[in-house]
């Protein structure tokens, strides 16, 4: 059982207990104030016992008897409701209330998992993914423009200027985030801050209460494969459909296999169909991508907002600065 499944079951149990306690409290209140209602409720209970006995007795005219008893109960129930109304209570005051009336908070309807249970499992799975994220989350305030060269590169582009704009774009993206936000495709060589800026967006959204699934493509795909082969419980594909934002880091570093490609395609395609944003980053060049992935994946990636990263490997810059 996954942690998410356990957490969802616990939540259902809590809901049932809350509903029972609430129900008991209301019964106690009514029995103290209006004992005649409690007497009528006992009548219903006794008649129900009689019905059970009648069913077991196999005697003649049994269905007639059962019908009579059932009608008796209905009219008593009606009497109780009229009395409750006349005392200023809602007529269903003594009926148990559930968060989900469909499954009465048991999580199952005719042996099948109820939608409320599935929703809870997904909710806790999203939290589990966020908790298990292997990538350190950062703040936009930690962005260091000085790590990027302040001189034009061979194409006449000033990396520092470009990266400042990019950081502002990402900050605005996080500030104004909604499910209508565009999907982003972060491109650039290793060590230019793609993971860093992704993690800044992730952190800011998480702090504002949004669900973010953030991990490397490799980790997500391994998890999905383990689930598909029954080695691990869970439904990561579904969770990735539900999350407010999905960030797939380091596309291209994962093992290349048809199973992985098809899972990857499903993740991306589902998000597009659901019109929910996804951020993907890669160290690969466009031609390397085209070599590795089939056209369906490439054409979807091309529909994203491209963010090109410039500069030189920050880890090398930091090392140089340290040794100076
Ligand atoms: Zn339910």
CATH architecture of the largest domain: 3-Layer(aba) Sandwich
Strand tally: 7
Give the structural class: alpha/beta
What Rg, in angstroms, do the CA atoms define? 30 Å
Largest sheet: 5 strands, parallel
Associated small molecules: zinc ion
Ends: how far apart? 53 Å
Overall pLDDT metric? 91
Determine the strand fraction and express it as a percent band: 5-15%
Question: Low-confidence parts lasting 5 or more residues at pLDDT below 50?
Answer: none
Indicate the CATH topology of the largest domain. Answer: Rossmann fold
Strand order of the largest sheet: 4-5-6-3-7
- The arrangement of helices and strands along the chain is HHHEEHHEHEHHEHEHHEH
What is the level 1 CATH name of the largest domain? Alpha Beta
Tell me the helix content.
Answer: 55-70%
Tally of separate helices: 12
Overview of the structural elements:
This protein has 324 residues and is of the alpha/beta class. It folds into two domains: 3-114, no CATH class; 133-322, Rossmann fold, CATH 3.40.50. 57% of the residues lie in helices and 9% in strands. The protein is built from twelve helices and seven strands. The strands form two sheets. It has a five-stranded parallel β-sheet, with helices on both faces. Strand 1 (108-109) and strand 2 (112-113) form a beta hairpin. Helix 4 packs across helix 8. The longest helix is centred in the N-terminal third of the chain and has 31 residues, at 3-33. It is elongated and about 100 Å long. The mean pLDDT is 91. Bound molecules: zinc ion. The site of zinc ion (ZN) has 5 residues, from loops.
């Amino acid at each position: 059982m996954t942690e998410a499944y356990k957490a969802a079951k616990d939540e259902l149990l809590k809901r049932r207990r809350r509903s029972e306690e609430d129900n008991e409290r209301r019964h106690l209140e009514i029995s103290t104030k209006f004992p005649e209602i409690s007497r009528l409720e006992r009548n219903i209970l006794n008649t129900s016992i009689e019905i059970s006995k009648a069913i077991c007795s196999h005697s003649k005219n049994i269905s007639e008897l059962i019908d009579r008893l059932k009608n008796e109960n209905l009219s008593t129930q009606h009497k109780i409701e009229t009395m409750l109304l006349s005392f200023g209570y809602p007529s269903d005051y003594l009926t148990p209330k559930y968060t989900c009336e469909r499954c009465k908070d048991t999580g199952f309807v005719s042996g099948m998992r109820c939608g409320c249970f599935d929703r809870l499992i997904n909710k806790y799975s999203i939290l589990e993914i966020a908790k298990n994220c292997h990538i350190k989350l950062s703040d936009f305030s930690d962005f260091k423009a000085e790590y990027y060269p302040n001189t034009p590169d061979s194409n006449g582009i000033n990396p520092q200027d470009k990266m400042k704009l990019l950081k502002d774009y990402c900050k605005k993206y996080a500030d104004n985030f909604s499910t209508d936000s565009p999907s982003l495709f972060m491109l650039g060589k290793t060590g230019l801050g793609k993971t860093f800026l992704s993690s800044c967006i992730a952190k800011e959204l998480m702090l504002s209460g949004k669900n973010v699934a953030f991990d490397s493509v490799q980790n997500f795909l391994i998890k999905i494969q383990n689930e598909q082969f029954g080695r691990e419980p869970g439904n990561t594909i579904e969770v990735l459909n539900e999350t407010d934002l999905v960030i797939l880091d380091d596309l291209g570093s994962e093992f290349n296999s048809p199973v992985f490609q098809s899972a990857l395609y499903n993740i991306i395609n589902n998000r597009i169909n659901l019109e929910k944003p996804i951020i993907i980053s890669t160290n690969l060049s466009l031609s390397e991508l085209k070599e590795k992935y089939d056209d369906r994946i490439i054409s979807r990636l091309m529909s994203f907002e491209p963010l090109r990263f410039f500069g030189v490997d920050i880890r090398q810059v930091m090392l140089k600065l340290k040794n100076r």
